[in-house]
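Next comes a single protein record:
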Amino acid sequence: MIRVLLVDDQPLIRSGFRALLDLEDDIEVVAEAADGGEGLRLAREHLPDVALVDIRMPVVDGIETTRRIAADPALAGVHVVILTNYGLDEYVFDALRAGAAGFLVKDIEPEDFLHAVRVAARGDALLAPSITRKLIDRYVAQPLPSDAGAGLHELTGREREAVVLVAQGLSNDEIAGRLVISPMTAKTHVNRAMSKLHARDRAQLVVLAYESGLVAPRTR
């Protein structure tokens, strides 16, 4: 059973998501919160698999909520998915850097929303190619941090290849097809790369791939 925490200051939004999730046999909404502070408390109490967090809230916003969840070892199994009305704006970008596994625009189709929750719960969060391209555009205009790529020397050749493909928006199955290996082997390469680069999830792995220069935008 996938355990979900809803964190949004709009009751109507929360009730809509809950109604949709409650129809699924494999998903359970364990708690709701109206701000990030309450959400953090409930995350510690219920240890959900997925926390759906609105990016703009009073008291404690989605970025700070994500940062606190990512920094808490007791919440290592909680995958934060950011909810936004605005697409990939600067706030979503900051949330990804803070540790979010991905983001959803609130007008997403119901079937895509449910799929995203299940993907996030597996710890195999994906960034769609269109989102990845927007991330690339953001990195074009930003200088690289001084410590970017600190763990790159530890990656094997196959792990580097896997990271590049993750940054291109490919799933483990697609990486397996591209590298002519099994999906389990592809997942192993990705997980080992995440461990060596200290990436919380695939979203952060994409961030690190561009920050380190392992993957460079064509227009850089």
